[in-house]
Structures are given as structure tokens and as C-alpha cells.
Amino acid sequence: MCQLMECTLLFQSKTVGILDADVYGPSIPTMMNLSGEPELNKQNLMIPLENYGVRCMSIGFLIDEKSPVVWRGLMVMSALEKLLWQVSWGPLDYLIVDMPPGTGDTQISLSQNIPIQVIVSTPQDIALLDARRGAEMFRKAHVPVLGIIENMSTYVCPKCGHQEYIFGQQGVQKIAKDMDLEILGDIPLSIGIREGSDEGKPIVISQPDSPQALAYKEIAKKVCDKVTPVSEKTG
């Protein structure tokens, strides 16, 4: 989630929205430092909350943050349909959807409305199993997978500079090779990213010149280049 949110902030000069589709664990309100219930416009559509220039919608805006979401599949799908189609997004250059993990009905239904997917995974084997299943599901649904991002790729000691591969090494590289996926970038394990996410101050805003922020910027540039039509690039 953090990777998509941070990269979202970097589509500079573009109008961007992000939909938090993880109904059971909404994190956008915290990570984007937003709270309150969306207002309705004259068409009775919800107006997204906005911070850092990004329009945001999440089930977290509609329920108490301490209340668990105890819903069955049909209720979840109804909520997601509302979040996707009953929102006054306005003209957007990009709408980024944070998908919940798994390959069930929710993910299948959402993938039918999302033209391109990006896989995010840590290097550990058990996480890569889920990443592989997700990529296979999207392919069966004929949804192109743009590439894969490696999260928590390595930990660099801030005092001595020593690198430690806490979650394993070369795992994402292997799955990318096996499935013919491009590696869009890797994000290190960093206390700055964790603290910024918890405080609602993304590291690309609070520390824009840090190595972590630069890694996000490089990923955002790659994604933007890949999804921007050639006609727009050439003017």
C-alpha cells in the first residue's frame, strides 16, 4: 500500500485519485492524514477527500476507525461499487486502486474495472507465492501486469551502512524472470517510511531528497512513462 501511495504523490502536474479497495484494512485515512465523512454534491455523489494534491476515497472515511468491518462478500462488493462509481472523482489523469491481497471474488470483480496492474511483494518466499497467484489471476482475466515492485528489499544500517537482506534476496528477481515481468524498482526497509506512513507524512513530502524518496520517484517515473500514450509524450 505504502508504495502505491508514495508513487501516487509523484505524478506531478497530473490529476490523481487513489481508491483504497482494502475494505477490511483501510489505511489511506492514516497514511494521507485525512479524516471525516465525504460530503455529497448535487448529484448525490461523494466528494473525495484530498491531501497533498491527491483525491482519496476509502471505506475508512465512512466507518468508525475502531470498528471492525464484519461483512460477507456481497456487502463488500456493494461497498466497493459505491466507492468506485458513486464518487465525484472529476477529471482524472490517473486513478490508482489499492487492491486487497488474495484472488477471490473481490479481486476478480475489481480487476474487470482496472485496465493495468502492478504487483508489490517482499522478497520472502511466502509473500512471493501470493504475488505469483495474483499475477496469474490477472493474466487469466486478460489484465496486463505492468511490472513488479520489491518492497523491503534490504535494510541499510544508518550508522555503519551495512546491508542486511532480512526478508531474503533475489526472490522478486526470480519470479520476475519466471513470469516475464519487469522489475519497476525496489524500496528499502526504512524506519523513515514507517514513521511517515503512521504519521500521515509521506517520505516523498517530508524527506524529498532522501534515498527512499528517490527510489519512489524512479518507480513513479517508470509507471508514468509506461501508461502515458505515445501521442501525449510527443505532444
From TrEMBL:
InterPro entries according to UniProt: Mrp-like_CS, Mrp/NBP35_ATP-bd, NUBPL-like, P-loop_NTPase, YlxH/NBP35
PROSITE patterns on file: MRP (PS01215)
Residues in coiled coil: none
Entry's family note: Belongs to the Mrp/NBP35 ATP-binding proteins family.
Keywords: 4Fe-4S, ATP-binding, Iron, Iron-sulfur, Metal-binding, Nucleotide-binding
Protein name as it appears in the record: Iron-sulfur protein NUBPL
